[in-house]
Design a protein that fits this description.
33% of the residues lie in helices and 25% in strands. By secondary structure, it is an alpha/beta fold.
């Protein structure tokens, strides 16, 4: 069998961590090879070695049977490897064409850029991807889906043979994901080899040919996707069986904690609903339906034109997130990296930010109490970290999410707002986050969760509200039995 890429016996260590241990990874020409594993399994480290961000400690890399040395991103590029990271590397104020050829500009002569050639070649690249798109558009003017397509055009402009896609669908709508898959199929027909990294198992079965699973820095299995079932794949990823759950219950109304009445702003139109004590209410709808905007309005992050918010029967004016936090609310935002954490602070510092007044005396922090509480939270939420003093940026996505949740547990928040709570985290970490949310509800915490994953809402919610164009259009009291109705309502708006 002739491989386009072979990574043999690859090992990589960081201080105190063996990230990869003798990993073998081989890719066939023209295939879509899915690389998966739990957060911290080593897949990102392996791909960063391939892309030249890290240097391997041990092992060999072969391209088309020939050993190559990759010690920098330029080495990777020269060897025909292009990497598209989860955080897109586009400059918002530049045009699509400028972004595609950024750092290259088609070898300008005497410092002069060939603008017409640049635009023509950008147009041809988009055409190869099945797109009719003006290369003069600024990045900030286009959708997230078209930004992703620009990254792909940028990759193939380098004359690569292998394209690594790291969680490419994370911020895309359903239609944009389908377009992405169409483009991947088109690239495959044109002879490109794709390494596809995703936590969404349904995507792998839709687009992938073979799959490699890593766990705890070690190779577990490489197999054709047709030969492995989803439950088997989950077990390979986590090392344990995880049963798919839906919340079966007979709905009964609980004592009201949150009531919002006629919330209105530029994104919302007369939104009203209630949440009981210990109840979990889901918000479902397509991208742009107003789910995130509703959570932000309740939390005081977006201003209201009209409407009222009641907590425990008392009308509250939530003019800012600071007021919301003081009133017992906590938000777990959609984008944890930019809105949920301060990356260069420690786990402990992030977790105690809202609660410093409660853990200080005469202006001095009570370090012993903080250490004890953090130790308790790490154990309770199963946060995997060498130390509470570790910078939060060094944790996996799932563990970062658990630190954000711990922040509101430490603050003893009575109402938690979750926006895409498991976005970008692996199936094992998802299961742990769901358990945390169920435990919180059982202890009396009120929860509102917005998610684009219907199965997520079915697993944890007592009720589901469907949003469409900034309005709540339907309420479902038995969501586990009403999946198709919820999906139809979100699409049709009725």
């Amino acid at each position: 069998m002739s491989y386009v890429l072979e990574m043999k016996e690859i090992s990589k260590s960081f201080p105190g961590v063996k990230a990869l241990q003798n990993v073998n990874f081989s890719v066939l020409p023209g295939e879509v090879h899915c690389l998966i594993g739990a957060n911290g399994a080593g897949k990102s480290t392996l791909m960063k070695i391939l892309s030249g961000v890290y240097e391997k400690d041990e092992g060999t890399i072969l391209l088309n049977g020939n050993e190559v040395k990759i010690t920098s991103p330029s080495d990777s590029k020269e060897n025909g490897i292009a990497t598209i990271y989860q955080e897109l590397s586009l400059v918002e104020e530049l045009s699509l064409a400028e972004n595609i050829f950024l750092g290259n500009y088609l070898n300008p002569k005497a410092g002069l850029i060939k603008w017409n050639q640049l635009k023509n070649e950008a147009t041809e690249l988009f055409s190869l991807l099945g797109l009719s798109l003006s290369p003069n558009l600024l990045v900030k003017e286009v959708s997230m889906g078209l930004k992703q397509m620009t990254e792909i055009a940028k990759a193939i402009s380098t004359k690569c043979q292998i394209i690594v896609m790291d969680e490419p669908s994370t911020a895309l709508s359903g239609d944009e994901i389908n377009k992405l898959f169409d483009v991947i199929r088109l690239l495959k027909k044109q002879g490109y080899t794709i390494i596809y990294i995703s936590h969404k198992l349904d995507e792998l079965y839709t687009i992938g040919d073979r799959v490699t699973v890593l766990r705890n820095g070690k190779w577990v299995i490489t197999e054709e996707l047709n030969n492995v079932s989803e439950p088997q794949l989950v077990e390979y990823i986590t090392g344990r069986k995880i049963e798919k759950q839906t919340k079966q219950h007979i709905y009964h109304q609980k004592e009201e904690f949150l009531k919002v009445h006629n919330l209105t702003n530029k994104h919302l139109k007369n939104v009203s609903f209630t949440v009981g004590k210990g109840e979990t209410v889901g918000l479902y709808g397509l991208v742009g339906s107003g789910r995130t905007e509703l959570l932000r309005a309740i939390y005081g992050a977006d201003k209201l034109i009209d409407g009222e918010i009641f907590l425990n029967g008392v009308k509250k004016k939530i003019a800012s997130p600071k007021v919301a936090v003081n009133e017992g609310m906590g938000l777990v935002p959609e984008n944890r990296k930019t809105e949920g954490i301060i990356a260069n602070l420690s786990i402990e510092e992030n977790a105690f930010l809202p609660s410093l007044n409660n853990y200080s005396k005469s202006r001095f922090l009570q370090q012993t109490k903080i250490r004890e509480k953090m130790k308790e939270s790490i154990k309770k939420l199963n946060i995997k970290t060498p130390s509470p003093k570790t910078e939060i940026r060094n944790l996996s996505g799932g563990n970062q999410q658990k630190v954000i949740i711990s922040k509101w547990l430490i603050h003893q928040s009575k109402l938690l707002l979750f926006d895409e709570p498991t976005q970008g985290i692996d199936v094992g970490a998802k299961d742990e986050v769901y358990k945390i949310m169920r435990d919180l509800a059982n202890q009396g915490t009120s929860i509102v969760v917005a998610s684009s994953e219907i199965d997520e809402l079915l697993a944890i919610c007592d009720r589901v509200l469907v949003m469409f164009e900034g309005k709540i259009i339907k309420e479902y009291l038995s969501p586990a039995n009403q999946k198709s109705e919820i999906l139809n309502s979100a699409v049709s708006g009725t």
